[in-house]
Design brief:
By secondary structure, the chain is mainly alpha-helical. It has two domains: 3-167, Helix Hairpins, CATH 1.10.287.1490; 172-233, no CATH class. 77% of the residues lie in helices and 5% in strands. The protein contains four helices and four strands. The chain has helices spanning 3-82, 87-168, 173-183, 208-214, and strands at 191-195, 198-199, 221-222, 229-231. Strands 2-1-4-3 form a four-stranded mixed β-sheet. Helix 1 (3-82) runs antiparallel to helix 2. It is rod-shaped, with a radius of gyration of 41 Å. The structure holds zinc ion (ZN). Zinc ion binds at residues 199, 201-202, 204, 223, 225-226, 228.
């Protein structure tokens, strides 16, 4: 096998590790974004429910004040009963009484509904908060694991990049430029094994004479279809 090709095979191994590391880092970053998004969704949901509970409490307070006003009105009307002078006034007073009492009934019904509603919302909130504590713990631990994974892959990338940089200058200048260009191509394959008679990179059939040349120390062979350097074991 040609000396340059031997170097290329080694370089390709470093390069594959670099590309794999980059893909893994990208995947991990996407997962981190996903978990952070979940955390945000959880806390937003809790915030909405908390605001909801707060608003219901305000409404309850308002209704209770209105109810107290109605009670005060009833007391006033009862005092007026004592100083009534004629039939006409009695009818007017009774009319007012029934109006205030009916308002009071309505308010009491509304309050019962609001108390039911706040109980329901507070229960929902309790469940959501409990769930959120569990899922937050899980998400944070997942994020930490992913961040550690990123560091590990970055270390592997640096290590392989250093090995690559040290080795690449051993290539003959005449093939180095083409080799470097091919590493930047789609999927980063610059040198490929001939599998039987097939280029391992593009699955194209390699002509017989090229396969023979690939076995020689003096020859450097490129795939006639994809242009990648070829070797035969
Ligand atoms: Zn090919």
């Amino acid at each position: 096998m040609n000396k340059d090709i031997t170097i290329m095979i080694e370089l390709q191994r470093f390069w594959d590790n670099i590309l794999r590391g980059k893909t893994e880092i990208e995947k991990s970053n996407k997962s981190i974004l996903y978990w952070k998004d979940q955390l945000k969704k959880n806390s937003d949901e809790i915030l909405i429910l908390e605001t909801n509970v707060k608003n219901i409490k305000i409404r309850i307070k308002e209704k209770e004040n209105e109810l107290a006003e109605k009670d005060a009105q009833i007391k006033k009307l009862e005092k007026r009963k004592d100083v009534i002078k004629n039939e006409k006034e009695v009818i007017a007073l009774e009319h007012e009484f029934s109006k205030v009492k009916s308002d009071k009934d309505t308010l009491e019904d509304e309050l019962i509904n609001l108390f039911d509603l706040i109980k329901q919302k507070e229960d929902e909130l309790k469940i959501l908060q409990a769930e959120s504590i569990v899922s937050e713990k899980q998400s944070l631990s997942d994020i930490q694991g992913l961040e550690e994974r990123i560091i590990r892959f970055q270390e592997s990338i640096n290590e392989n990049q250093n090995k690559f940089d040290d080795k690449v200058d051993q290539l003959s200048p005449v093939v180095k430029t083409k080799f470097m260009k091919l590493t930047k191509s789609h999927n980063g394959i610059a040198v490929s094994k001939i599998d039987g008679e097939i280029c391992g990179a593009c699955n194209f059939q390699v002509p017989f004479n090229l396969i023979q040349d690939a076995l020689k120390e003096s020859k450097i062979v490129n795939c006639t279809n994809c242009g990648r350097f070829l070797y035969k074991e």
